[in-house]
Amino acid sequence: MKKERMGVGMGLNLLLLVAMVAANILSLYHLSSLRNHSPPSTTPHTDPVPDHLLHQLHTIRATISHLTRIRSATSSSGASSSLPPPPPELLLYSRIAPIASSCSDHPDLLHLYMNYTPFSPCPRDSLSVAEPLLLRGCHPLPRRRCFSPTPPKPLLPSSLPSHPFPSSLPDAAVLWPPTSPCRSFSCLPSHLGFDLKSTESSRFLSARSALDLPLHQLLAIANAAGAAPIRLGLDIAGGTGTLAARLKLTLNATLLTTTMNLGAPYSEAAALRGVVPLHAPLQQRLPVHDGAMDLVRTGHAVNRWIPVPALEFLMFDADRVLKPGGLLWVDHFFCKAADLDTVYGPLIARLGYKRIKWAVGNKTDSGGTKYGEVYLTALLQKPIGPPPLAANIVSGIGKA
Ligand SMILES: *[C@@H]1O[C@H](CO)[C@@H](O)[C@H](O)[C@H]1NC(C)=O
Ligand SMILES: *[C@@H]1O[C@H](CO)[C@@H](O)[C@H](O)[C@H]1NC(C)=O
Predict the structure, then answer these.
(1) Which residues line ligand 2 at a C-beta cut-off of 6 Å?
(2) From 144, 151, 179, 294, which residue has the greatest number of CB atoms within 10 Å?
(3) What is the pLDDT of residues 70-99, one digit of tens each?
(4) Ligand 2, from 362, 364, 370, 376: best to mutate by most atoms within 8 Å of Cβ?
(5) In which residue ranges of the chain is pLDDT below 50?
(6) Which domains does the chain have, with CATH numbers?
(7) Which parts of the sequence belong to the Methyltransferase type domain (predicted)?
């Protein structure tokens, strides 16, 4: 009897979840416009939401409230022990995840984003709408029925770089935003990762401090630790794809680079170099199957500005995609010195990885000295065998 009750409770939860997801998707597409009582004046004409969709949505909404009523009724009538509350992980996730709050919290942007004319060119608003949505954790809904803008002239094969560290990239490969002050690769500041011939071509080759991990060291460690060969990897927030380019040249390895186009055409640059740019925000589940990667690196954009719960999700997703014995390279992570021992060190320790390298150094730029920040560069190895018991791990989040 008890077992049956529990089955019913779990089934109910599952049904609720499915209904909520369905309603979310539908409402994201169709109701964000309704929620905005005063549509922006740039909208010349808003089609009414089709009746059948509204009907579907109302049915789903009614189902949800019905299920919720059943659930609260049964849980308040003495059956509470057999009907578990929503799993805390689901509640935590729904605060961060794309499907729930991160998209619906920004109905104005969503409305702008989905306000396009089907079967015609998509609006050229990636910098003003799509990237801001991505940055807020809402992976934009696909615009499924418009044509994504492309540069006007085809790129001649001869203008493609023959090497991933060329002296220049063809400007014609990018549809530069008309409002952008910079409409050529040569005008981008060199520290952004577009100076391929000099700055980028020397990266990862030598160490200026203990915070650097040059490739010859990485490879020696990988060999000694049984993590070689490095064939597949993921560079999270990898800019223009320099690590992927370097490992392709030295190891024939294939690295995916997650990158955004915040203020500069990082994705286009990586693609021109012949490495794959994954256009994904840091909140997103990595689109790679479990245990597929030999190496995961997190770049400079992974730092204390990421909310701790989202960072913990990111680290555990890195763990998910790493194979047993794979290497996690936390490269120049920065945080306030005091937080390293109390927040971020314990967060990383929860993975139960072996510390191969753990170097901490003062961040000496103006922001770093102002906030007393330190850099951490760590190389960690995923254990082979069963993970540690949850009872031995004290989570820093989810309690609050
Ligand atoms: C990479 O693969 C190519 C083609 O198989 C081969 O010729 C080349 O020697 C390899 N390079 C390295 C560094 O392994
Ligand atoms: C790092 O910064 C701290 C606090 O600002 C200071 O006490 C310490 O001496 C610095 N360490 C180095 C190696 O410069």
Answers:
(1) 362, 372
(2) 294
(3) 445 544 544 445 667 777 777 777 666 655
(4) 362
(5) 1-47, 67, 70-71, 74-75, 77-80, 398-400
(6) 2-40+47-135 (no CATH), 182-392 (3.40.50.150)
(7) 234-329
